[in-house]
Design brief:
alpha+beta, 6 helices, globular, four-stranded mixed beta sheet, 157 residues, 53% helix
């Protein structure tokens, strides 16, 4: 049986579309939550006339590791007994910064967490801080609860 090049291209397109849909569905809720927080924070900054924050993988790794500890402890904290401080966690992850701040929260999803941060004066101040230019966000889902961390920095270039 001979297949036309047009049929072959349609089949290749269909298979690639299927795999891209599977990868979106298979993406963990936690990974999606970190990106959703990043997008929500930049929307809030834009609505307040501020430039968007740049994504930093090192800060995101530090944030994700701290979110993992919060999920394990089933508790919100900026630091646990025996854990490195925020500046030490960020440095260890490879971030270069002159200033840091951090938001932590837990909720059913990223949208809820973003709303919590905007309703809290201290958290809101962190994400709308005009001096900050970089962010890394991490989230871990445990039993339907998303534990989230956003680390903000003034990057050192």
């Amino acid at each position: 049986m001979k297949i036309s090049s047009k049929t072959f291209l349609i089949a290749v397109f269909a298979v690639s579309l299927l795999f891209s849909c599977i990868s979106v569905v298979a993406q963990p809720k936690s990974e999606m939550a970190g990106q959703q927080l990043f997008q929500a924070i930049n929307r809030e900054r834009a609505a307040n006339g501020l430039p968007p924050l740049k994504w930093d993988d090192a800060l995101a790794n530090a944030a994700r590791q701290h979110a993992e500890l919060m999920a394990e402890q089933k508790s919100l904290s900026h630091g646990f007994l025996g854990e490195l401080s925020l500046p030490s966690r960020a440095t260890r992850a490879g971030a270069r910064f002159s200033w840091l701040s951090e938001n932590v929260a837990a909720g059913p999803n990223a949208e809820n967490i973003s709303e919590q941060w905007m309703q809290s004066p201290n958290h809101r101040a962190n994400l709308l801080d005009a001096d900050m230019d970089t962010i890394g966000a991490g989230a871990v889902e445990r039993n339907g609860v998303v534990f989230a961390v956003a680390d903000f920095s003034k990057a050192k270039h």
